[in-house]
Amino acid sequence: MITKNIIKQPKSIVEVTIAVPWTDLQPTWDQTLQKMAADMELPGFRKGTAPLPIVEQNLGAKLQDEVMKVAMPNFLIEALKGTDITPIDYPKYGLVSFVKNSDVQFKATITNRPQVTVGAYKTIKVTKSTPKPVTDEEVQKVIDDLYKRWQTRAGVQATGNSAQQAAGGQSGSINFQDGSASAQGAAGGQASGLALSNGQTAGPDDVFAKAMGVTTLADLKDKIRKDLEANVSYNNELDFEEAILQEVEKMTTVEIPEILIQDELNRMLVSLQRRVADMGLLLEDYLKGQGKTLEQLKTEWRVQAEKNVRMELGLADIARQENVVISDEELKAEIDKIQDARVKKQFEAQEPRLHLRHALRQTRTLDLLKKMVGG
Fold first, then answer.
1. Strand, helix or coil at 51?
2. C-alpha 44: how far from its chain's center?
3. Range of the domain at 101
4. Phi and psi based region of residue 371 (left: phi greater than 0; alpha: psi -120 to 50; beta: remaining)
5. For residue 213, which of 173, 186, 198, 344 is within the disulfide window of CB 3.0 to 4.6 Å?
């Protein structure tokens, strides 16, 4: 039977010293030795036929390392049974003493799930603002931007393909993203129909609207207005959710483990790298332009990272108190929505499924808070 000594340190760090009797370790030793012997070739013996004592002697410390690699996690799990310790990172192991046929001792350093206290979250008061109406000027601005792009595209097509001008136009489509719009598939022939003798154009009309995939200019304006209104509504909802989460963060008390802060800083860095890549830059060039090093950037971000982690832990604790659970069926249904087969296959592994279940649980908890607040 193993013996253990658990020492809790600041910031949720826990050091566990474990002593294992040889009789408990020997089955793992023998199994590992047999497995390694099956793949070993020694002079005078065919592969896998050398006597175990000779294989053991030749393996030396390598056998010990393989045995402890398998044994330490299992004995740590046994040592933590019945305790209030839940590791949130991979343990760091250190061998204290190992002598065959004697007790083996090792240490494991882990980060424990921190104790979280959330205040009276059911009394959160946040007012959801009324979405700002979309103005005619905003709609016209999108129309004008679309028209300029369409003219440019149509002019290029007209120069390179006069035959297509003679044949007439082709229908196109509109792609709205974050309140902006771009034209696709506009035809040079339609542009030529708008050109005046002095080089000026008649401006947006039904011909232009048809190139955008609708029937009339009035239809196009209506489509753009609805898209802008949907975008305003979406951003308004995000602002409402952010206000609630800020209140959760303020009323959450927790001693944040360093590993969670570093994880959040890395997440923020990945997000920045994606935005920088969208601008056609490398992160190194971006940092050089800002006159900052990566470490300086992380130092500046640290306060925000701590707030993000505190909010995340607070929301998770509210989920625990409210018994918010994502069933296996709900998790499967969410995975089934994924169209990309390669991405979907990743969720056959346990870790991505755990992350997705957690994200769904946090989202459902936020929805619950929104109902409590009355938004």
1. coil
2. 55
3. 3-113
4. alpha
5. 173
Give percent helix, percent strand, percent coil of the chain, each to the nearest 5: 60, 15, 30
Phi, psi at residue 306, to the nearest 5°? Answer: -65, -40
43 lies in the same domain as 109: yes
pLDDT per position as a tens digit, 3-19: 999 999 988 999 999 99
Helix axes 217-250, 294-321, angle to 10 degrees: 80
Where do we find the tokens 């010990």?
64
Last residue of a domain, one of 174, 200, 224: 224
Helix axes 22-37, 52-59, angle to 10 degrees: 100
What is the model's pTM? 0.69
Q: How far apart are CA 212 and CA 158, in angstroms?
A: 17
pLDDT, one tens digit per residue, over 54-90 is: 988 889 889 999 999 999 999 999 999 999 898 888 8
d(CA 359, CA 334): 11
In a domain, 120, yes or no: no
Assess if residue 31 is contained within a domain.
Answer: yes
Domain end residue (candidates: 82, 113, 144): 113
Task: Kindly state whether residues 202 and 248 are assigned to the same domain.
Answer: no
Report if residue 189 sits inside a domain: yes
| Main-chain phi, psi angles of 322, to 5 degrees | -90, 5
Query: Which parts of the chain are beta strand (E)?
Result: 3-8, 13-20, 92-97, 104-111, 116-118, 173-177, 180-184, 252-254
CA atoms within 13 A on the CB side of 351: 3
* Residue linked to tokens 């082709």: 170
CATH classification at residue 27: 3.30.70.1050
Q: In this structure, is residue 121 part of a structural domain?
A: no
